From TrEMBL:
One Pfam family hit: Cyt_bd_oxida_I
Organismal lineage: Bacteria, Pseudomonadati, Pseudomonadota, Alphaproteobacteria, Rhodobacterales
Organism: [Roseibacterium] beibuensis
Keywords of the record: Cell inner membrane, Cell membrane, Electron transport, Heme, Iron, Membrane, Metal-binding, Transmembrane, Transmembrane helix, Transport
Main localization (coarse): membrane
Family matches, as InterPro entries: Cyt-d_ubiquinol_oxidase_su_1
Protein name in the entry: Cytochrome ubiquinol oxidase subunit I
Bilayer topology term: Multi-pass membrane protein
Family: Belongs to the cytochrome ubiquinol oxidase subunit 1 family.
UniProt-annotated location(s): Cell inner membrane
Amino acid sequence: MELDVVELSRLQFAMTAMYHFLFVPLTLGLSIIVAIMETVYVMTNRPIWRQMTKFWATLFGINFVLGVATGITMEFQFGMNWSYYSHYVGDIFGAPLAIEGLMAFFLEATFVGLMFFGWDKMSKVAHAIVTWLVAIGSNFSALWILIANGWMQNPVGAEFNPVTMRMEMTSFFEVLFNEVAQAKFVHTVSAGYVTAAVFVLGVSSWYMLKGRHIELARRSIAVAASFGLASAFSVVILGDESGYSATHSQQMKLAAIEAMWHTEEAPAPFTLFGFPDQEDRETHYAVHIPWAMGLIGTRSLDDEIPGINDLEARAEDRIRSGIVAYDALQTIRANRDTPPEAAVLSFEEHSADLGFAFLLLRYVDDPREATDAQITQAAEDTIPTVWPLFWAFRIMVGLGFAFIGMMLYFFYRASFRGMQFPRWALRAAVIVIPTPWIAAEMGWFVAEFGRQPWTVDGVLPTALSVSHLGATELLLTLAGFVTFYSVLFIIEMGLMVKYIRKGPYLDVEETEAWTARHEHRLRTHDGNVPGASGPSTTPAE
């Protein structure tokens, strides 16, 4: 097995996925914020809300288009770089991807044109419905993608067919309602909402600092702070749900995130800080919060969370069981017409561990010929590199709590201090614009790197999933993808900065006239346009 090809394939997919996820969270959150703003416009008939909707929708549209471009390229890699993976689990993995393309993406792609070009051709209510359909379609796309990814983390509703040598779906509803997939969906979507809230808050704060578009900026801050506060709380709460589900489905990942080398007495503490040492299997200068990990991971005071060493020993037992399944599988395949009953029964008993036997293919062509040393090495391979998981998780969590504090402060100022914001707070809001993307990328790193050495946890090792490509081909395509995605990223940043600097340029006259009337009304309480000879005859404000 050419490990350089495996690592290059992993690097290429990681690069394209992380590039793609620069666009996804803003799309998810900004679509909802735009829909909320348009709903307020429909309810109040105030032109300022229409202008806000159009402005933030313009930024959403730029991000949406580039997100689609990067997503399509990423999905092609399943066939290009991961052909054996596609063959082995395509029966399950392909279903949610197909539904995503046929239903969710079709929904948002169909209505996004009406959203941008239907303002003067549809009623206000109809256009608001279209905007909500775009938002729902965007979030449905995330649902089906995360159902597919959640199955890779916790492969339920499927079983291995010894005749076809593939995983086949046995229950679509188990795949659909997979606890890992559902927890990942709500957590990821909430993180996208926080990303958009921080983005809107930061851009609006920049306008406030520059003394431009003050009315739009104040209202946008109020929406972003309210929406972001609820989203930030939900990210933390739903992240706790992900930790609880990992206790059942991905114990090694959870132990690695915590650098928990030994099984702790229940309830286990949470390691707030420390320096994991994988060679010595200990965490130096560890600072613990008593009971916290036990409560998060088990929701009890007496259930243990297994440590890395115990999980490695379990993996070795499962590898030996998998060798028995592999031997029975070879017997069944050699006697396809009349497989021996003993082999069939043996395979059924040990088939759940077949994937662990495949870990030995890195070291030996036939797992049945593996030595004890090779089995021990394969069991050790089930331990991911701990220190990057440990720190990435803590960066993500730390930023999550920081977002709660920031949103709470701006919500308080917007709700109880007349939308008056200190300049230091506005500057801080501008500076932290990139941080939600850092948190999101850290979260995906934890989710995917923590699953190694598996492509599908416990079923298919990463080293077995790749296509038969050469290192040169992968290096060339990797360079091509890096170049292409970098150009797209530069285009994205250029367009976003251009339109942010340009500001809300649509419906300017109508909005300025409304603003003048509104300010005059606040001063005189007569509702007249300043300098006009009679009462205003414009629609209700």
